[in-house]
Fold each of these.
Amino acid sequence: MGIRAALAVHPASGHGAAGRASGVVAEKLRTAVDHLTMVEANSIEESRALMVRARDAGLDLLVVLGGDGSAHQGVQFCAEHDVPLAVVPAGTGNDLVRALGFPMESLAAADSLVEAIGAGRRRRIDLGRVGDEWFASVLCAGFDSAVNERVNRMRWPHGPRRYDLAILAELAALRPKPLVLDTEDGRVELDATLVAVGNTAYYGGGIPVCPDADPADGLLDVTIVGKASRLDLVRILPSLRTGKHVEHPAVRTMRARRVSVGGDNGWVAYADGERIGPLPQAVECVPGALEIVG
């Protein structure tokens, strides 16, 4: 039996970009697989139900066409059911695709995927896990999560500039809060502005908050911005786009297999841009948890 694949499309991703590209992407995939099932859904619940139905019919590959939120749902399904995953970007951030080094344009990514399927190009990457939730990119809390909540309420502008404006808006309410991190190497307690736990480098539409994170090293990279004033943060912000923020005296980095993130701070954790819930949260790296095609 040949390759049986499903193409999961979230039509609204990228302000409709996924829906517009779905037909052409499907045509390209049909040249590389023997059977393709279209899974088009407008809600998380519907998407997961359709993915399970495709798995029950026999599934060798799940291709997600969408943004990081869509990819996040694909990660949940594929990690739980040991189904290989491929992602064709059609969102506003596309941070997982960026971290994996795939083309950032939908049709170019589809062409690359067709080539990878034909060549049998696959690899396993680590995932982060918090409770019952998997994440492929970054879990954040503090200033970051406040920015995420604001971004999710915004309707303009599109793309990375939305994050930039949300960052500026949240500066007005900036207050360092107590943060407690427990890892296999001990406890860290300090006043902090934000913490990011990265399986890969990027979040927020291309910000390398954990610039050295490697999704195949069995470790999570942790970036902490300590007690920083608004002026300090304004000075740090431009370097976030280049990864040079880790050189600032207020920034601390570490690596761990497991990290508990807590403290009396009222912070909410986000992972892959999706709301996880209030701290404390226990995070672990699960080596080789996901097979990627591409």
Amino acid sequence: MEVKIGVHNATRELVIESNQSPKDIEGTVRSALSDPNGLLDLEDERGRRLLVRTEHLTYVEIGEPVERRVGFGTV
């Protein structure tokens, strides 16, 4: 599952690939946002952790990655 995270004053979004289900990721995001001093804690598919203070979040996009096609073939 691909997760894109927008952060205040950052020119690029954070993107991770996670083995968690969309519902699990959504639950983690919601529980972090419910805490006034929340910390979003996600783990990618390689076991690396991403920690972002919730006061700096602008958006979290959860979805499947889109495969890019290369070439001039027809569909």
Amino acid sequence: MSFLILVAVIILYWWLCSRRKPKLSPYMLEQSLQINVPIPLCGKPDVVWETRDGTLIVGDYKSREKQQVYESEVIQLSVYKLLVERTQKRPVADYGFIHFKNRNMKKVCLMKEKEIIALYYRYWNVIGGEVVAYAANNKNYCRYCSHKHECN
């Protein structure tokens, strides 16, 4: 009887562990992707994983140790998600992972397709002078921006 209880505990433990974190397999590494619909985009995700159920998850590696996720990185991963969805015709998770130099990773919620499309049109409206650009609340975002001369 105690042997059956031990076997049951081991099976339960294995099952709980397997449910905690999805088993991820590399699906795509640094592959260039391009779409023209709904908007023209291109990019090269660092990694795309596949879960046991076939869902794809986008990921990006950062060489810094500081584990802060920036809005621009969420946008980047969200664009990758849209690229993967459109080119692979497979379900893609609405979250992704940022991996840091110290091997830690952070899960981030990704933007919806309509938000990416809105950013795309806003960008071109700013470049075309149809919309007035504004500086980010955090001046560090603007430091390397090639369009900071457009802002008020």
Amino acid sequence: MDSLDYQILEKLKSNARQRASEISREVHLSVSTVIDRIRKMEAAGIIKSYTIITDDAKVGNDVTVLIEVSMEHPQFNEDFIENVTANPYVIACYYLTGEFDFLLKVTCKSSEHLEEIHKWVKGRSGVRQTRTHYVLSTIKNIHSSLPAAEEEV
């Protein structure tokens, strides 16, 4: 990847529906070159998918929580991962180092709904301990990051 690929990715990151012709004008390449570069990044797995970002509250999910999960033993991890992957309210799952093994990001309708999900998480085989954090407000929520053109902190 070169700086032009990063520029194309930046444009797609801000609006994945942006036309190749618009991107080509902004990065000073031909439309066919932009399309070719995008296809190569897709084939290489750099671009994994195109998606939408919804406003959770406007689609009825007013509650966001982070749930830390500690497992009894790694032998339970695969089953746990399979379960959380299938749960539509678990919108992110991270495998961690440290005191807890997983961090789940959950969006749901209400406190009552959260209680159901919390019971469901605690009921998975091998779950030893959980710790739940209510999200009061979202300050920053981007879905991917790209290296800066120049190193920034």
